[in-house]
Design brief:
Helices cover 37% and strands 19% of the residues. It is of the alpha/beta class. An eight-stranded mixed sheet has the order 1-2-4-3-5-6-7-8, with helices on both faces. A hairpin with a 2-residue loop joins β1 and β2 (42-49). α3 (101-114) crosses α4 (127-138). Residues 1-25 have low confidence and may be disordered.
Length: 298
């Protein structure tokens, strides 16, 4: 029983952040360009789909660009989508540097500059959402609009059992998760498949550190869309708190919309943390936000 309990707790850590990325039945959309960008000591893998206003996509922990295969065609229909693999994930090899949300945000900004994009919309899911949030905090000059999907600004934004599961990530959980789609994909695309244990250990170390970005979130002045499921791993109250920190939910919007803030909040019905990143409802919500006339910043 104890062994089973440990396995379940460890599995939660991986599944909550990567869900069945290799299990999607969608045929991948061919990229128009792929490459490796030299940023902050990394050779960061990226791929580009479509043309138009740039949108940078950030996957969840243990994931890779393939996580967005089910929704890529819709997102890239009228824009240039740039999907990347974060440090130690997918095709981007790890480097001798502790993993942190702050460092990965620097990497994202470095890629935007490497591609010579003046500003890009940035969308992240789960760990990628937290990296996207840090990118807006640390490098607002390269972000045009921000989309945060199922992510937190404070560690206790996750339900307690999720925090407990993520905190147990390490060599033991890595071995157990070799039976999952996350490892199967990693073993096929990673430059050093043996680093699976390193990735799990490094993520576990990051997850065990406390964080609270409340004061910094208040300083964000970008049009921002927050999207969560009504059965998410992120507490609904936390999602609302993030919305309020960004200036939303302060007053009635008014007949003329003059009371609407630059922040938007969407709670998708019947959607979990494990299904939201491939949900058609996510696509329609995000596309409507990105295609709408930009709201004036605060």
């Amino acid at each position: 029983m104890a062994r089973k309990t440990r396995f379940i707790a460890a599995s939660i850590a991986g599944i909550i952040l990567a869900a069945a990325i290799a299990g999607a039945q969608t045929k991948p959309m061919a990229a128009s360009q792929t490459g490796y960008a030299p940023v902050d000591g990394l050779r960061m893998y990226y791929e580009i789909h479509g043309t138009g206003q740039p949108l940078v996509l950030l996957h969840g922990g243990l994931g890779a660009t393939e996580m967005f295969d089910p929704i890529m065609p819709a997102l890239a229909k009228d824009r240039q989508v740039i999907a990347l693999d974060l440090q130690a994930h997918g095709r981007t090899a790890d480097i001798d540097q502790p993993m942190s949300y702050e460092a990965m945000a620097d990497d994202v900004a470095g890629l935007i500059r490497y591609l010579k994009l003046e500003r890009a919309d940035v969308m992240g899911y789960s760990v990628g959402g937290e990296v996207a949030l840090r990118t807006a905090i640390q490098h607002p000059e390269v972000v045009r609009q921000l989309v945060i999907v199922s992510a937190t600004f404070r560690r206790d934004g996750w339900y307690p059992e999720i925090v407990a599961g993520m905190s147990q990530m390490g060599p033991a959980s890595a071995e157990q998760m070799k039976q999952t789609p996350m490892y199967q994909l990693y073993s096929q695309i990673a430059p050093r498949p043996a680093d699976w244990n390193v990735l799990n250990t490094t993520l576990g170390e990051m997850f065990r550190k406390d964080y609270d970005w409340s004061s910094e979130v208040k300083a964000i002045h970008l049009p921002t869309l927050l999207v969560f499921g009504d059965a998410d791993a992120v507490r609904t109250a936390h999602a609302v708190e993030l919305f309020e920190l960004l200036g939303g939910g302060k007053r009635d919007g008014g007949w003329d919309g003059s009371g609407i803030s630059t922040a938007r909040l969407a709670i998708l019905p019947g959607v979990t943390h494990y299904t939201i990143f491939s949900s058609p409802a996510l696509v329609s919500t995000v596309v409507a936000f990105l295609d709408a006339p930009m709201t004036k910043t605060k």
